[in-house]
Write a structure and sequence with these properties.
Strand content: 15-25%
Order of helices and strands: EEEEHEHEHEEEEEHHEHHHH
Number of helices: 9
């Protein structure tokens, strides 16, 4: 019996595997981009008074300089040692201490906390009690568990920091960090200012909580928003735009779910029910995502890249968490 031949594309010159054809996407709106990075790969800027933010263009952290030392808000490993370099740069320019004395975790994920171990073990690490539980479970030496679980309001070096938890959203422990004297809210992995959420609504574990989070954020008084990702700070308008984008996905899913006919998929695949389910869910996702992609391309960067993934995840929450369009056999 003959077997089908398999071929691997190769470069005619070198014999190396050829690069597969890559898709083209819509241009990134200029308004979605942030300031240029320095030669070491980071940007540090003033948010307000003695509050600063740091970005590598993909991740963000922030810090407060106080008479008692520096309070660091998150420690993304992609920024890594540039966190201390940014603190040193600001401290040298302003004649203040560059010693990090406190580190506040927004949540337990390694992509936002994985550089924590770069700082002295004596640094006071603060997080929600669920953050502590999850970090103790994960037992990652790069992310020491909080030594303190937070009170509602911290006073560090004369600076007020309000920490709150409004239920699960992106993760079970994701927290709101409000700096009322600096007109700033830090809420990570919910809104990416200027950009659509990445895979599965920013890899969110609780979609109902994720959809509620922007309203919770807007209930605080603030001017500056630190979202934890990408290259610029956000505004209240950015949060409202994200809120509308997610509402449009929700509404489009509710239209598509009862209208896409499952019959062709089950007829085609017969006893391979998983293939039929995949076909149905993919088709429903595509139908729901299409008008949202059309509306937001050129408005939110990567709306054409990740809207289908986010739409799928919202659809599954609407089906499974809320029971919408559930079929009950007669």
């Amino acid at each position: 019996m003959s077997t089908p031949e398999t071929t691997t594309g190769t470069s005619s010159d070198s014999g190396a595997p050829s690069v597969p054809a890559l898709p083209d996407y819509a241009p990134v709106p200029r308004s979605s981009l942030g300031p240029a990075l320095n030669d070491q790969g980071y940007y540090v800027g003033r948010v307000e008074r003695n509050l600063y933010w740091v970005t590598d263009g993909t991740y963000q952290a922030a810090f407060l300089t106080t008479p008692d030392g520096v309070v660091l808000l998150d420690a993304p490993p992609t920024i890594g040692h540039n966190l201390q370099r940014a603190v040193d740069e600001v401290a040298a320019a302003n004649g203040v201490s560059n010693t990090v004395t406190h580190l506040i975790y927004s949540h337990h994920h390694a992509d936002h906390a994985g550089a924590s171990s770069l700082f002295d073990p004596g640094v006071v690490r603060i997080g929600h009690e669920e953050t502590r539980r999850l970090l103790l479970r994960d037992d990652d030496p790069a992310r020491p568990a909080p030594t303190e679980t937070f009170r509602h309001t911290l006073d560090i070096g004369g600076e007020r920091i309000e920490l709150a938890w409004h239920g699960p959203n992106h993760t079970p422990d994701n927290s709101y960090i409000h700096l009322p004297d600096h007109d700033t809210l830090m809420l990570v992995d919910i809104v990416n200012p200027g950009w659509a959420p990445v895979y599965l609504s920013n890899l969110t574990e609780d979609i109902p909580g994720y959809l509620q989070a922007p309203a919770n954020a807007l209930s605080y008084p603030w001017k500056h928003f630190i979202g934890g990702h990408l290259g610029r700070l956000g505004t209240r308008d950015d949060v409202r735009l994200h809120q509308q984008y997610m509402a449009d996905i929700d509404a489009s899913v509710r239209t598509a779910l009862p209208t896409v006919d499952p019959t062709p998929y089950f007829q085609k695949y017969g006893e391979n029910v998983w293939a039929a389910v995949k076909g149905l869910l993919d088709a429903t996702t595509a139908a729901a995502a299409a008008p949202v992609i059309e509306k937001y391309t050129g408005v939110l960067a990567a709306a054409d890249v990740f809207t289908p993934s986010t739409t799928f995840w919202v659809m599954e929450s609407i089906r499974l968490d809320l029971g919408y369009a559930s079929y009950v056999h007669p």
